[in-house]
Amino acid sequence: MSVTRTGEPGAPEGADPRRWWGLVIIALAQLMVVLDATIVNIALPSAQRDLGMSDGNRQWVITAYTLAFGGLLLLGGRIADLVGRKRTFILGLIGFAAASALGGAATSPGMLFGARALQGAFAAVLAPSALSLLTTTFTDPKERGKAFGVYGALAGSGSAIGFIAGGLLTEYLNWRWCLYVNIPIAIIAVFGASALLRAHPGHKDVRLDVPGAVLGCGGLVAIVYGFSEAEPRGWTDPLVLALLGVGVVLLTIFVWWQNRAPSPLLPLHIVKDRNRAGCFLTMALAVMGMFGMFLFLTYYLQVVLGYSPVKTGMAYLPLTAAIITGSTQISARLMSRVAPRMLMVPGMVLAAAGMLVFTQLTAHSAYASQIMPGMILMGLGMGLTFMPVFATATAGVAPQDAGVTSATVNTSQQVGGSIGTSLLNTIATTSSTAYIAAHLHDPAQQALITKEGIVHGYTVAIWWAVGIMLLAGLVAGLMVTAKPPKRAPTGTPVPEPVT
Questions:
Q1: What CATH number corresponds to the domain at position 408?
Q2: CB 126 within 8 A of CB 305
Q3: pLDDT digits 0-9 by tens, 166-198
Q4: Which chain positions lie within coiled-coil regions (predicted)?
């Protein structure tokens, strides 16, 4: 392959001269995908009233998206490898915009649920092609650290940005704009991608593993669906147990099939690599705790402290700023000098410390002294962790496996978030019910005891989240043994991956 000079001072030879503008487009698309998991949270009460949703069904506005996203990501990654990353990226953007338009125009709960599932399906195509484009665009270790710093900041803060945007759009426009807002973003990204991103031809030797897709996606959907149903039904409900059992069986058959399939959906050598497996597991555990925190803090601020949607969204600003700082100013600067676990382990300990602050919440906690410090610690910890996870998990992957590896990182994130939300919410609900039943002796105190019971449930669940975060740090410390990336000697050309 020929190596060309970019003409850009200080740029590695063979580098794409438009790579930093390309990063803006990739980051914009990734932000849209990540924040859509949470942007409708604050808008949910308005949408429920407008469309006449029942309390039992309203969860599907959130779950339909994460189920489709998490369940179809592996297939989306393989499609990116087969068709070509740039083409898949643009198709994903167009489909995501169309699904967003359909959801914004929804006239019934079923129409909104279907549109959210469709959004999740196109996000499953878009996200892995975005990450694999980033991996193949930035090949110099120093530049790659900066690029992954931006990407990691968006991956970590996108959910918090979703809360802020959801609050502003709901209060000043309409809940439907939480979906319509994706359309102009997607249009800008489509034109930007067409002009700025290099075309990556598909790999004709990649074949879609249809049985693997059915088994893998079916297993993930069954498990995530089972966890989501555990909150309203209880862990011993026959449907919940059946779903979890079916999910485990399907995933077991999936692993068996991947050892025998001629073109496996998930080549097991990707997961068998100790560093990648450690990154996937660390990501899943970290996001389990983080999504639980989002859920509880949103309800705590709105229901217990009486914040408006905008005030609730703005309350997440310190968390967002801390994630961006931890990722771009600390993690990105250190990634080329220290081993990944030297960032991931302290990151998870910091995040656990932030969660520990939230275990002290009461029905009358002050934001500045009892909520914001926890957010800052949590944000710094997540910022330190996300970027080395993304960079390490995708490092040294064969070009034909780049899409599916990227999809596995995103799958661990979405499945971890879905499971964490359901698991911790069930713990919180059960603890609240038990507290209220034990303390409600005087009917005149019902409002106070109920509020205290809700907060008690949150703090019990957050203690579990602290444990999950510490477990993520332990996994990172024991499993991720990768060394710092080697810098190329000055003047040595850094070839692009063969695509």
A1: 1.20.1250.20
A2: no
A3: 888 888 888 899 899 899 989 988 988 887 776
A4: none
**pLDDT tens profile 299-339:** 788 778 888 888 888 888 888 888 888 887 888 788 878 88
For the chain, what is the domain count? Answer: 2
Q: Tell me which residue range forms the domain holding 36.
A: 19-199+265-479
